[in-house]
Structures are given as C-alpha cells and as structure tokens.
UniProtKB/TrEMBL annotation:
Record-linked InterPro entries: RutC-like_sf, YjgF/YER057c/UK114
Name of the featured protein: RidA family protein
Hydrolase among keywords: yes
UniProt entry keywords in alphabetical sequence: Hydrolase
Amino acid sequence: MIKRFGIEGGTGTGGQHLPFARAVEAGGWLMVSGQTPMKDGEVVEGGIIEQSRLAIQNCLDIMTDAGYGLADVVHVTVILTDARYFQSFNKVFKEVFGAHPPARICAVADLVVDCKVEVDVTCYKAPN
C-alpha cells in the first residue's frame, strides 16, 4: 500500500502551487520531497546555518506527521549552491543527526528556488 502525505500540494515562491506530495510511504519506507528553507511559501532569508536548520526542520516536521523520527532516517540528499557552505552545513547536520548519522550524499548545484540549500530524507521503519 502506498500512502501520500500532503497531496494537496504546498505553496512555493510567489504563491505557486506545488504539484507533488510532501512525502510518500510504501512498505515501511518514507521518501520526503526536497525541502528548502521556506515558511508559508517564502524563502526565509539568512546565511547557510539558518537556512540549513530550517530546511532540515521542514523535513523533520513532515517525518513527524508521518510517524517517523530521527532514528528512522537512513539516507539524506543535500544540495548546496556553493561548495564553501559544506563545513557550515556539516555543523548543522551533526547537531541534528549526531546520535543517528544516516548515509548521505552532498552535491553542489543551482536550485530552482533562490536559496542556499535543499534537503530530502529517506526513512525506514519495519511495517507492523
């Protein structure tokens, strides 16, 4: 069975409707869509530390709504817009995942949203 969370779509920059689920669960796996440092459809200004915390927190909020926690995170994908952000992002990452470090990939690329970071997570919890 596949369960979709947030299928009504979120709100992106400029009030744009986002036509994808916030997360999808199947067979104990939860795939959280990429999260940027946004609140109420607007990018929150700030440096890489502040933006990283918010992007990760947005993932954690979706995970919590779906019944998953930090210990369930098995993989994280990180996209930074500048390689110089790597060490600062790692500081935030360690603050959040220190006791439960997941596997991870971190890449540098342009983002379609004017921010410094995007994060997605994959979680697993054995089905009941």
